[in-house]
Amino acid sequence: MSHLARIGVAIDTGLLKKFDKLISQRGYANRSEAFRDLIRDELVEQRWEEPEAEVVGTVTLVYDHHVRLLNERLTDLQHDHHESILSTLHVHLDHDNCLEVLVVRGQAARVKRIADELISTKGVKHGRLTITSSPRGIE
Ligand code: NI
Description:
The chain is α+β, with helices and mostly antiparallel strands. It has two domains: 36 residues; 84 residues, ACT-like. Chain A, domain 2 (Alpha-Beta Plaits). The chain has four helices and four strands. The longest helix has 19 residues. Bound molecules: nickel (II) ion (NI). The site of nickel (II) ion (NI) has 4 residues, from strand 2.
């Protein structure tokens, strides 16, 4: 583990009160861990803004499998990008709807493009790209 540095932060008391409430709702044991997570979150976001950065993430899709050719279209897209899609989890949510979670990895710009393609496919009711990073980029 890297060395710890102690820093002092000047913060408005009202803002600090809200922050303390937020982190207690989220279950943080102390402010330091909450600050570290906020910083890591921003670093991950920044990494995704560099088009060529290597990133990992998940794409979540909800769709109606009765929509004609939708399953085939989504599967074709996944095969087209097999080198960036590491794994797919499929759950039959109910009689009509399917949930798919895809683990993606690659250059940020490419991964975003693939996610956009999947999410904008006609018949996909909801989709979201969740971004993260390998620990290397945020420690
Ligand atoms: Ni299904």
